[in-house]
Amino acid sequence: MALITTMVLITSILSLVLATVSFWLPQMTPDHEKLSPYECGFDPLGSARLPFSLRFFLIAILFLLFDLEIALLLPLPWGDQLPSPLTTFLWASIILTLLTLGLIYEWLQGGLEWAE
Questions:
Q1: pLDDT score, position 109
Q2: Where are the domains of the chain?
C-alpha cells in the first residue's frame, strides 16, 4: 500500500510541477503565422496546386515515429511484475537508444531544419 501511495504522490507532484512550468514558461506574443487558421507548412491563401515541402513530410514522419515510441513504451511500468524485470528494462533501453541515435543522425544531417 505504501508503494501505491508513493507512486500517486510522485505523479501528482510531477503533474503539478509540469503544469506550473508550462503555464509560466511559454512566450505570450503570437505572430502572424500563429494567428493564422492553418499551420501546415504552406501558405493557405496561395494556389492549391503548389507542391508540399519534403521537409514537412519528414517532420511529420519523425513525429509519428516518436509517437509510436510512446505507444511501445507505455506498458513498461507493468514490466516490473515479470520474472526478469531487467530484461524489460534492457529492451526498452535498446529502443530508446536506437531512436535517440536516429534523431541525432537526422539533426546532424540537417533534416530537422525547417527553413532552406
A1: 86
A2: 84-115
